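Quick log. Single chain, no ligands specified.
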Amino acid sequence: MKTAKWRATFLLILFFLIVNTMNAQNNKLSPSQQSLVKISSLTATGNLDSLSVQLNHSLDAGLTINEIKEALVQLYAYCGFPRSLNALNSFKTVLDDRKAKGISDKIGKEIIVENKVSDKYEQGRKTLEEITKTPQSKPAPGFGEFAPRIDAFLKEHLFADIFAVDVLSYQQRELVTIAALASMTGTEGQLKSHIGIGKNTGITDEQLAEAADIIQSTINTTQANKIRKVIGVVEIPVVNSEIMVRIAEIEIVPEFVEEYQKILKENAAISIQKEPGVISIFPMTVADKPYEFRIVEIYADKNAYESHLKTEHFQHYKTTTLKMVKSLKLVEMNSVDKNEMPQIFQKLK
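-> predicted structure:
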């Protein structure tokens, strides 16, 4: 009898452990969802080089060709035709390269181009009611009354023609939209609305927090904090308290100045582009001594700096310029006001 009770208790505990584990897993973004967040963020910001890399990773992670196509098509409604078209052209190039290498990618569910309904406005209005769980008047109050054509485009095209294609689910589409809006500036109102819609489709706060973490590593902390603010989680300081700032004072053998400058510029550009922890590598020369360089280096923290030293591009810079360097002095700096750092160079935009 005692054995039977013990066994029943054990099985009950095991059941709850399994359920809790499954719930925890369900609150995580799947690899495909993570890929959609990254693709959307990079498309919205126009970072085509990083997008091409991510498109390869996304195909490897299991996204189908048509799922990616549909996400990029949808994004024109949120970040404009130019960025959507540029992303689609980049995707075509990626697919051509993979095909040339003998890689066969899964096409996925067929994309139905035509949406044959008698009243697209009503179709879009009902779709919007379904995902917002709110009655939608005709026309939409405010902007819809002021500019009826934009209300028609919104209902008839975005929420009818685009959303009618079931290659992506409503949840996937909202994840795409949230990632794009969070990655752009000036879209806080729309982001808040779509986070609410996303929750209606089953996206959890935990998944949104994970999306914010992805955007932080893909775009930046400021944009990621926009999601964190809406869902009520602690925002991460833009400037890390462990930020590392130094000035490199380098004298170059005069005959190598031009060659060194070219290699230095290349290393700085690649480092900024590829390394999230490299905030700035800003080279300058002394006005009356073009062979004397001053490089302002800013890293997120010491780990980012040490990681930078191990990169292939830094090692290339180091080995190719070693013979050119006459003297080198590294000056460690402390910022008087770290909170002012995000304002640096903003007026140059």
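Residues 113-162 form one domain.
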